[in-house]
Structures are given as structure tokens and as C-alpha cells.
Specification:
Length: about 325
């Protein structure tokens, strides 16, 4: 399995540090950094018994063949596979993991590995059940967790894990990755996606929509609530909120420093809006956006929340 170029150095350090000896590791970082690939590579390196020179799974042995479909010693948990609309990892899923660890692996031997992606989506009960497993891990068993943000996890879970920060690409690495993948034309969007080329590629289908939305944001105090289309919010709510947050932040940044970060291509508009913005209202609005962002993936009334935000947005400008 190939890692992303910016992950190779961290991988070498990871394998040198022998995190393998520890039964639980927590990979932390944004999804767009390739977090899950790094964690998955680590998980498979604990299963394959014929590792490559760089200590990755060989991809050829019987174990690696099984990994492609289902390996009896590897369990991967994704919250997306959970039933129900909340997409939280339930206590039942964690109880099943406990059973999996308890079952003997004597038939094929080797390590047992559990990989839980998006650990922040565990319900509180599930998190407490996971804690029990972390407290008494069976021999030759490894738990690998991934999360975007350490602060959203129970401190008691965090304290039982070795923390592995997922590296982010430099600007040069991000640009050259886009080039190799055939998306050189999207390089100018990197600042908008926190310099994460995987996010730029994943969101490329939305770039027309984002242009439409930005064109409306440009209107400042003349923004019309009527301009808000359902597709801004359905399926794209978090992205639209993030876009608004970056737009506002850019106006704020220009007001304070006359510098640009995300929207260099809209210099003139940012400058005009920045001149017209009331700094106190601007800061309050950034706080409001943050609040909505934190609950943006919960079942809230998106139309009302966004309308309220945009009314506040209009009032920021003189
Ligand atoms: Zn192998």
C-alpha cells in the first residue's frame, strides 16, 4: 500500500519509534491529510508477516490477499456503516469488537487488529465500552483509532493511546501532488482547502457551486435571502458554512493586516467589504458561524440557521 508522499517521513519515524509495541494508537489529523490511509497502512503492517523494506504490508502474501476482502484478524469500524441517521458508532458495535478480541486467533495465529475510524462519532456509551477494552487488551491485540480532533474524545481514552499526528503536506508537496494527479489547474484553490490537495480534488465537483455562492456573498449588505438555493444547504451544508467562515475571516484578515489568505482572486471585493465592515459585528458573526459549524452535521433546521446567519451577515456592513 502506498502512502501519500508527505506521509513517508512520518511513517519511517513511526516504525522506528516502534509504536507497534504499544497496544493502542490514536492517529490525529484532518481527513484530507490522508489520515485514514496512514492508519490503515499501520493496521495492515501489523497483520502482514512478510513486510517490505519500509515495513509496510507486502501486498502479496496470504494475509495481504485476505486483507483485500476480509481478514479474520482485522476489524475495521466506520461510522458511515452504522444504522440510523445519527451515524454514531453504537455500543453494540464496540461490544462486537470485544467479542472479536476475545475469540482466539489460534487458527491462523498472528496479531489481532481493530481499526476504528472517526472515533469522535462514538456514543458516550460506546466510548465507555471502548475504554474497557483499552484497559484490558488481550495479548497480541492492537487498537488503532483515528480522529480529526483530540478534544472531542474522552480524555481517559486519549491517555491510554500513543498519539500519532498525521502530517500535512507543505505547499510545494500539495502543488506537486495536484500536478501528478492531473489537477494542476486547481492549485489556486489550495488556500481555500487549508492546503489539503485531497480535499481540493474531492470538492472539485462543487467548485461551480462555490463560485455561485461567493458571487452572492460579494453583495455584502445587499445580499438577498431569496438568492439562497436549496442545493447550497442540502448535502453541502457544512461546506457552505466553512466557505462563509473563510470568506468572513478573509474580510477580517484584510481589515487587520491588509493581507489575503483564501481569496486572493477576489481582492477587490474583499477590500470593499472590509472597508464597509463593522469590526465588532464581524467578530460576533465569526462566533455565530463557529457555533453553527460545531453542530452542522447534527439534525438542525439548516434553512433557518443559514437564513439567520445571512441576516447577521448583511448587518455587518455599513
Ligand atoms: Zn503481506
Amino acid at each position: 500500500m502506498n502512502l501519500y508522499p508527505w506521509q513517508e517521513k512520518a511513517w519511517a519515524e513511526l516504525k522506528q519509534a516502534n509504536v507497534k509495541q504499544h497496544h493502542a494508537s490514536l492517529f490525529i489529523g484532518p481527513l484530507g491529510s490522508g489520515l485514514e490511509k496512514l492508519a490503515n497502512t499501520f493496521a495492515t503492517s501489523l497483520i502482514c508477516r512478510n513486510l517490505t523494506d519500509t515495513k509496510k504490508a507486502c501486498g502479496k502474501c496470504q494475509d495481504c490477499q485476505w486483507i483485500l476482502t476480509e481478514h479474520p484478524n482485522l476489524k475495521v469500524v466506520n461510522n458511515e456503516a452504522e444504522e440510523g441517521t445519527s451515524k454514531n458508532i453504537s455500543i453494540e458495535s464496540i461490544r462486537n469488537l470485544k467479542k472479536f478480541f476475545e475469540l482466539s486467533s489460534h487458527i491462523i495465529g498472528g496479531n489481532k487488529v481493530i481499526l476504528i475510524n472517526n472515533t469522535e462519532s462514538l456514543t458516550l456509551n460506546a466510548a465507555n465500552a471502548l475504554l474497557k477494552i483499552l484497559e484490558e487488551p488481550p495479548e497480541n491485540s492492537y487498537l488503532i483509532l483515528t480522529a480529526d480532533n483530540i478534544s472531542s474524545l474522552l480524555p481517559t481514552i486519549v491517555s491510554r493511546c500513543v498519539i500519532v499526528p498525521a502530517p500535512r503536506p507543505s505547499r510545494e508537496e500539495a502543488e506537486s501532488f495536484l500536478k501528478v494527479e492531473g489537477f494542476e489547474n486547481l492549485s489556486s484553490q489550495l488556500p481555500l482547502f487549508n492546503n489539503l490537495p485531497l480535499d481540493v480534488i474531492a470538492q472539485r465537483g462543487n467548485s461551480d457551486l462555490f463560485t455561485i455562492i461567493i458571487n452572492e456573498f460579494k453583495k455584502g449588505k445587499d445580499f438577498e435571502l431569496m438568492a439562497i438555493e436549496p442545493k447550497w444547504l442540502t448535502g453541502h451544508f457544512t461546506e457552505t458554512i466553512c466557505l462563509l467562515q473563510k470568506w468572513l475571516y478573509e474580510i477580517f484578515l484584510f481589515k487587520m493586516t491588509t493581507k489575503f489568505h483564501f481569496f486572493e482572486s477576489n481582492k477587490e471585493n474583499i477590500k470593499k467589504l472590509s472597508d464597509a465592515a463593522d469590526i465588532t459585528k464581524l467578530l460576533n458573526m465569526l462566533k455565530s458561524i463557529n457555533k453553527i459549524k460545531l453542530i452542522s452535521n447534527k439534525p438542525i433546521n439548516k434553512d433557518i440557521s443559514f437564513d439567520n446567519l445571512m441576516v447577521e451577515y448583511r448587518n455587518v456592513f455599513k
